[in-house]
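From the methods appendix. Each design record in this collection lists the tokenized structure first, followed by the designed amino acid sequence. Records were kept in a plain field format so they could be parsed without special tools. The example shown here is representative of the layout used throughout.

RECORD:
FOLD TOKENS (87 positions):
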């Protein structure tokens, strides 16, 4: 028998006008969510999902997205984009 659940995470790209620097935010509700969020922002095919859903994401200074990830036997599966906002 396998232990199956869903975890969630927040990923973001935030531009600091004062310093001109960009900060990235990766925060999961649990360890699997954090792992999936890290994979989401560092894997081109997942970021392609984001840019297809939000064509203005590449031009926006700030971006936040919520992802979900199935967790089976304490291991994260494929992350899924649930919602996103760019400004």
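DESIGN:
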């Amino acid at each position: 028998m396998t232990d199956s659940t869903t975890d969630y995470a927040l990923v973001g790209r935030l531009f600091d006008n004062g310093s001109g620097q960009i900060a990235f935010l990766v925060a999961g509700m649990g360890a699997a969510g954090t792992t999936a969020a890290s994979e989401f922002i560092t894997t081109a095919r997942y970021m392609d999902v984001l840019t297809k859903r939000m064509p203005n994401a590449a031009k926006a200074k700030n971006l936040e997205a919520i992802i979900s990830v199935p967790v089976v036997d304490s291991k994260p599966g494929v992350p899924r984009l649930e919602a996103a906002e760019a400004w």
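APPENDIX NOTE: Residues 41 and 47 are 6 Å apart (CA to CA).
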